[in-house]
Write a structure and sequence with these properties.
flat; Arc Repressor Mutant, subunit A; Tetracycline Repressor, domain 2; about 230 residues
Length: about 230
């Protein structure tokens, strides 16, 4: 008597057939958003996708490949709204703020970006910045330095925010508690030796990270005028 194939075999084959790199990246992003880098393991991916290691390895090389692909995906969605014909200054501002917001929503992206500066994510961001600087009339001989200044500023803020997110995930104090403690330390400094830092204690406690970031971008854009 010929036995019929078990239903689970059919379902397993369908799951494998429907699996793709895009599906894996989406699942990885959900794991990363939920628990940070430590939450992304191939075991966790197989469990989330209800599949086997072989099916995963058919589409990705390893955890590093998945993490890089998830980062590329987040940045690609950020760059998509940047269209031709938009005012270059406003486009630069929107591009920088978009990356800030993306990393605020996905802190692991801020930690991943500087690790592999040859990845499409960072290359595409740099390329867009360079094109917008060109549209603003920044001469070619200083475009490299100008683009590097803005990209490094954004990555610096991104890395700092990513570090804060890892600290909170590890049981550290939240943003308000951390800033309150730091401001308290600044307020206790000798105002004769540290007059500027001492005076900024209140601002440190009350400042908005996003607004402060935009001030930095606007300072950069103001300097661009002299280069052009």
């Amino acid at each position: 008597m010929v036995k019929k194939a078990a239903p689970t075999t059919t379902r397993s084959r369908r799951r494998t057939d429907s699996l793709s790199r895009e599906v894996i990246v989406q699942a990885a992003t959900e794991l990363l958003d939920g628990g940070g880098e430590s939450a992304l393991t191939l075991r966790a991916l197989t469990a989330r996708l209800n599949t086997g290691y072989g099916a995963i390895y058919h589409h990705v090389a390893d955890k590093g490949d998945v993490l890089a692909a998830a980062t590329d995906d987040v940045i690609a969605r950020l760059l998509a709204p940047v269209v031709e014909g938009q005012d270059p200054r406003e486009a630069l501002r929107a591009l920088a703020l978009g990356l800030f917001d993306a990393i605020d929503a996905h802190p692991w992206v801020g930690a991943q970006l500087p690790r592999e500066p040859w990845r499409p994510a960072l290359l595409d961001f740099y390329e867009n910045v360079g094109r917008l600087l060109d549209a603003l009339g920044v001469p070619e001989q200083v475009r490299f330095d100008a683009a590097g200044a803005l990209v490094n500023y954004v990555l610096g803020v991104a890395g700092q925010n990513a570090a804060h997110a890892r600290r909170r995930a590890g049981g550290g104090p939240g943003r308000a508690a951390f800033l309150d403690h730091a401001a308290g330390q600044w307020a206790q400094l000798d105002p004769a030796r540290y007059p500027i830092v001492h005076a900024a204690a209140t601002q440190l406690r009350e400042h908005d990270d996003r607004e402060q970031f935009l001030v930095g971008v606007d300072i950069f854009l103001a300097g661009i005028k002299s280069l052009a």
